[in-house]
Amino acid sequence: MRLILDRLGERWTVTTLAELSNGPKRYREIERALVGISQRMMTLTLRRLERDGYVLRHVEPTVPPSVTYELSDLGYSFSTQVALLVTWSREHKSKLELARSTFDSKHDQS
Amino acid sequence: MRLILDRLGERWTVTTLAELSNGPKRYREIERALVGISQRMMTLTLRRLERDGYVLRHVEPTVPPSVTYELSDLGYSFSTQVALLVTWSREHKSKLELARSTFDSKHDQS
DNA sequence: CCGTATCCCTTAGGATACTG
DNA sequence: CAGTATCCTAAGGGATACGG
Asked: Between B4 and which of A23, A34, A45, A89 could a Cys-Cys bridge form, CB atoms 3.0 to 4.6 Å apart?
């Protein structure tokens, strides 16, 4: 259970899955879509998703190389689940923000 | 979106929500159920869930005090969503483990 | 019983520089 | 283009001790 939920806690997992749910994409395309991500994290995130079987990696050995990533069936299933949670998040965002500001003003932390 | 997903990344959020989804519980009860949690993290986790409006805290000012936690409507809605993901996780656990061991043996890291 | 306060270690992840 | 390698800091969270 944790082995799956831990992924969600990582900074770029959800956005990367969302990006790939629109179809296969090259490394550079994904990187450009994920504003603010470092090259290090882009690679790390993709590797972890690949390791878990969510993402497939195809290398075109041209010069310079072209590497494409796409969701596997497992990855597609997973990203669908995650999308549900993201939807829930969006729908309840305002309630959460209200709860937080209420809590913070009550427990006045100067 | 992140403000909600970040919670999931925290070590004890999901198990605490699961524990509370069975109904109101006292601090000590929850703590005992979450094997391995430190008192510090128990309190921190509950505070964060309370701050987000997922959990309600009732204090009975006896000596010694009795403090009860329970899910709010928002918290119940959230924990239901999370439970779906946990279910997915359990169902696909073996596929994930297989993917990982396959990946690891391929990318032999001595 | 229900916390808070400290100390400390491990990990996530950003910045930057370098390669096939 | 698609990565690695290194360095560095900030945050998560465990252990322990103390308090109303």
From this structure: A89
